Structures are given as structure tokens and as C-alpha cells.
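Possible race condition, two jobs.
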Amino acid sequence: MVKRSYSMEIPGKTAKGMVKNARISAKYSREIATKIKGMTTTKALAYLDRVILLKEPVPMRRYKEHVSHQKGIHDKIKSGRYPIKACEVFKKLIEGVKTNADYKGLDSSNMKIVHVAATRGWEYPAVHKTHKGIKGIRRKSTNLEIILQET
């Protein structure tokens, strides 16, 4: 079982969601999580759509070594990338949590992202054959969790 990264209950009307062992980059997931935290769900979904359509990059704050500058970043950090696969997983997660909020009787259009966490998941063992023998490869995964609060 995946350990939650939050330790206290968040006051107010909330909806929670989690994705375990998603086959996406943990580094890109962390950068997306820092960008969308504090946004409303409509703004976050619109931002993720723009990233998927390659119109706005995700600023790389921590993992920025050998990352080129991109147009359209209006922050102090100018380096960025377009992690499409990770954005699609985040978009699916946010839509699922909005559905959870509807089921609980909350107003899903008026929700704010209070908590987002991206942690490293399980490493899948795999086998790679070469002409010199068989080598083991570990394919990495990421755990995501999100909490929305009604504003």
C-alpha cells in the first residue's frame, strides 16, 4: 500500500484522489504538481490542455540541468519542457477527483487544488537481451495524490 504524504485532515469540504504506480516520470510529475497547486480545477485543466497541445511549457525549477529555454514562460525560470504523458495522467486524475466531489454532493466547478504530491513508485523489473547476454532493466513508476477543497 502506498503511504499518503499528508499527515493531517484538511478542514472543509474536500475530495481526494490517488493514482498508484503510473508509468510516468517522477521528475516531470513533481514539476507539474508545483505548477498546478493552488489553481482551481478549471484553470488547471485548461493549463494541462495547453501543455498537451504544445502551446505552454512546464517550467523546470529543480530538474533544469541541460534543459533549454522556452517561449511562453512568464516566470523567473525560463527553462521548460512539454511532458505530454504526465499531463494526460494529471488531467485524468483531476477529472476523477471532480467526479468524486460530485458524488459527495460538492460543487465540482468551484474546487481549488489544496494538496498535490508526486512520489516515486515501484520499479518494475524487466529483461533486456543483447548480443552479450541478458541484462536487467528497472522501469520506474510514480504515485500521485491530490486533494481538492470547495471554495
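Job #2 (started ~2 s after job #1):
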Amino acid sequence: MKRAILFFILMLQAAALVISCSNKIEDVDFNVFPDPSNVYEAGNSIQFNISGNPDYITFYSGEDGCRYDYAGMVDDEGNANYGISVKSINSRETKFTYTYSTPGKYEVVFVGKNSSFGEEKSEVITLQIEITAPQNP
């Protein structure tokens, strides 16, 4: 009887090991689009709607110091460039709001990532937006 119990426990451990090792990281599948009600003027909040499955999302506004092309590096003007964390594995964000203070054309980048035990998959979404000067009433 003890042998049968020991054998059963060993089989359960082996099955758990096989199942845990066969987990694959899901491909990143997400979408980001600007909210239709946005007013693209400096000083106004811009809302981005997010859907999909990434564990993590990082936002790059396209402004100096937050450009994806130089992520984690210093750009030609001497600015260190870092993204803004929008979503972590424990949150389920569906909206992100950002305010531009300066008019201009910006390349906005969202990077979605799924990762587990050293393996990582990512997807990059790039949007072009233009922020205008505020209109005086």
C-alpha cells in the first residue's frame, strides 16, 4: 500500500513537471487607438483605448526623453530616453491618458510584451499624432 501511494505521488510530480514545462508564452495581440472625443491641443489630455492580452505595456510619447528610437539610451541632444509603464501583469488597463504641453507632430509608440522565465514576445504599435496650439476663445 505504501508503495502504491509513493508511486502515485511520484506520478503526480512527474505530471506536474511535464505540464509546467509545456507552457508556452502567448503571442502578443493588442491594439491601441486614440479616443474619438480627443481634442489634439497642447494642454488637453489625450486618451488612448487599449485592448488585447499583453502582460506589460510601455508608452513612448515621442517627446524629447521619451522616444522609442532611443529607448534606454541617450539621444543626439543628450536626453536619456525611457518609456512610461502603462500596464503590468497584475493590472488590466483599457485606457491610458497623456497630456502634451508643446504643439508638434509626435510618433507615439506602445510596446506590448508577454514574458515568462526568460522568454519574451513583443509587439510594437506606432501612431502619428499632431498636437496644435490651444485655440483662444
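Helices lie at 2-21.
Logs attached separately.
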